[in-house]
Amino acid sequence: MVLIFLFLVGFGLTVSGGVTIIAYMNFLPVGVSWLDYLIFIAGRPECYFFPVGIILMAITLFRYPNNL
Known about the structure:
68 residues; mainly alpha
């Protein structure tokens, strides 16, 4: 049960971080370069939800018992 909860938390964090990263891509048409965009999202704490969520989901998937 704990593994399912951790997977769902990781999924939520991944979705939240991914949506935020995509939303910040609206700065690109204004004239911001890719390097400036990457520097900007590296300084935003909510963009770190994406890799943390992927790590949580990966840990959960590797620890989930395989009954094959």
